[in-house]
Specification:
Elements (H helix, E strand, L loop, with lengths): L2 H12 L6 H17 L4 H12 L3 H10 L5
Helix pairs in contact: 2-3, 2-4
């Protein structure tokens, strides 16, 4: 099972739609921003925080870029 298939099955169990292609890319971009500005473990937790806050992916990325990092 590839990642998109796994995510579709997981989304089904959660009762939500799986991410669109654009959403999938945006989540990976957010994860990349967090991982490259800090440590790798920040990537999944940053995505979780954005979801918990209920902000859309564009806003989540904008806010992530405001956080000082290891640039």
């Amino acid at each position: 099972m590839n990642a998109k298939e796994w995510l579709a099955a997981y989304a089904h169990r959660l009762g939500v739609d799986p991410p669109t292609t654009d959403e999938f890319k945006a989540v990976l971009d957010l994860a990349s921003e967090a991982a490259h500005s800090s440590e790798r473990v920040a990537a999944p937790v940053a995505c979780w925080l954005a979801a918990k806050a209920g902000v859309d992916l564009d806003e989540a990325m904008r806010l992530a870029r405001e956080v000082p990092g290891d640039d």
